[in-house]
Write a structure and sequence with these properties.
The structure is a homotetramer of 130-residue chains. Chain A is mostly helical and 130 residues long. The first copy, chain A, folds into 2 domains: 66 residues, Winged helix-like DNA-binding domain superfamily/Winged helix DNA-binding domain (Arc Repressor Mutant, subunit A, Orthogonal Bundle), CATH 1.10.10.10; 47 residues. In chain A, 61% of the residues lie in helices and 6% in strands. Chain A has 5 helices and 2 strands. In chain A, strands 1-2 form a two-stranded antiparallel sheet. The relative contact order of chain A is 0.11. Chains in contact: A-B, A-C, B-D, C-D. At the A-B interface, helix 1, helix 4 and helix 5 of A face helix 1, helix 4 and helix 5 of B. Chain A binds a DNA duplex (15 and 15 nucleotides) through helix 3.
Chain lengths: 130, 130, 130, 130
DNA sequence: GTGGTCTAGACCACG
DNA sequence: GTGGTCTAGACCACA
């Protein structure tokens, strides 16, 4: 389920966190679902168990998943709502960065809106939702 | 003019780059304006000259500013006409990713447009609509 | 009767011990009362029988309960008088440490007494004054 | 300044966290003070730098200390007030545990209050404020 | 089998 | 020199 890009500048544990959040948001994993154990996931993505553990701990700290001692790790009930809240701040920052870049590429806000429409259509129509 | 937050997760040199770009966008500094020297700015923001130098080099690489040997560093004239194909493709892809994420967070295209306007105002003008 | 919080940082077997003591304290279970068997309790609280067993063994070691071969586990008569003078010294030392910590946190002796009353009520009665 | 007990059941990183908090509460280290670097402290207490790092990260997450990239780690301005808030919850739980234990030792709430007075006097008079 | 802790040693970005 | 990341391998408590 999780794909790690070892060439990425982003640390492996952050990639795990990010992708796990996406899986929650997409509904691929649902509240109550059991996640692969630290060792299992480490084997699957070919990483060190400690790295996976670090990702799981951060996700737990954020309240996305929870650990039941000796039984494994599970998705919490409120995972999706928590994720959505944090996402808004993150996305506005992304938009801000993007607009700064756009300016230096000679792209104005109007053009960005046109693109939004274009992409919106292609996503709905073409079912390229991934 | 430039405010550094030493507690931020963002490296200082990136904060300098980011804020210098915004100053250009807002028109606080205009094409042809002379920027403070590396050592001056380093003194002002209490940072290592190497750090400021790294930021200036990156800004120069992006064509935002230019260094005239022995005369100092200046904002370039044609900063806004760097339009190149690669950048456009890249930004549309960024927008696409962002819209997909927005979709899973329950954010629609209309909301994104509203945010674009908000951010556009805060970047150009002064009022922080955030 | 016993409520386990699988999310708690406290091990399940400690939660069982703790709650069993409280049940004795509140008088919900009295000396001579038969406790559920290891397997019964394990089923009720959805835990591993080994875990319940570990809790019962510790309670037995402390003299709170006793196991009668083939007949089950019972609350002892003299549960409350198992503790000796050494315990008193230990508790006064605990109190002393606690008062020192309280001092540095700006909590005075009066506040500690108020808390004692609060906690005393919640343990004996039912209303959670917390 | 920090003493680690390798025999303690408490993990080393928690001992560091705990003792650092006490040093803050006591005012031995003040807001703005620079803490020993990860490597320095690791050398001093004879532990692995990673272990010290883990402690520092947790303290930073709690807002007690802050990291200035490449410059070191410092005590935050609001360290003491934050510590005091968290301490209240912790101490009430300690008191609760202590009262349960007291019950089994035949000690009532009145006796505890008397002890509080006794200890309070000895701490003020004898300057045994360890 | 599960996660939690610790050590040792390596490499990297930042300043 | 500073912390951040990752790997490898060990041991322990809990269930």
């Amino acid at each position: 389920m999780i794909q790690i890009d070892p060439r990425s500048a982003a640390p492996i544990y952050e990639q795990i966190i990010e992708q796990m959040k996406i899986l929650c948001l997409k509904g691929v994993v649902k509240p109550g679902d059991k996640l692969p154990s630290v060792r299992e996931l480490a084997t699957i993505i070919i990483a060190n168990p400690n790295t996976v553990s670090k990702a799981y701990k951060e996700l737990e700290r954020e309240g996305i998943i929870e650990t039941l001692r000796g039984r494994g790790t599970y998705v919490t009930e409120g995972a999706q709502s928590k994720l959505n809240e944090g996402k808004v701040v993150e996305m506005k920052e992304q938009l801000r960065q993007l607009m700064i870049e756009a300016h230096y590429a000679g792209i104005d806000i109007h053009q960005l809106k046109v693109w939004l429409e274009e992409i919106g259509s292609s996503l709905k129509g073409g079912k390229q939702v991934d």
